[in-house]
Amino acid sequence: MDISTRDAQPADADTLVRIIRETADEDHDRSPVSEAYVKEYLASPGSGILLAEAEGAVAGLLSYSIRPNLFHAAPSCLIELLVIRKDLRNHGAGSALVKTLLDRARALGCAEVSVSTMPDNAGAIRFYRRHGLAEEAVLLEKHLTG
User: Fold this and answer.
1) Domain 3-130: which topology?
2) How do residues 63-88 score in pLDDT, each as one tens digit?
C-alpha cells in the first residue's frame, strides 16, 4: 500500500474529528474534540497535525507540539496523539507519520522527541521503540476536567 504524509489543513477538521472519535469508541472512551477545536489547534503556534493518506483517503493522524526546552536550550517535540483507522492499521501509516515527524523535528533543531502511552499498551511501546524512542522518564499527570 502506498502511504504519503502531509500537513493537515482546517478543511480536514471533519475527517480528523471522525477518526479521533472512532478510535475513542474502540476504547470505550469519548473525546470532546470538535471541528472548531481542530481548527483552533492548527492555528496554535508550535502545534501541528500530520496526516497519512492511502489510496486517496486519510488513514491516520499524528498531532504534535514543539516548545522551547530550557534544559536543552533547544526545542523539544512531543507526540500528543497517533491514531490510525482500524481498517488501515499495520500497513505503514503509523511508521510514515513518525518518520516524517522525526525528520521535521531534526530539521527544526529539536533536542528530543517524546511520547507517552499507557504502561499496558505493549503494542505502542514496541512500535515507538522500533522508531528509536526509549523509556527515559516517568510521566505523572492529573486530569483537571471530566
Assistant:
1) Aminopeptidase (3.40.630)
2) 999 999 999 999 999 999 999 998 88
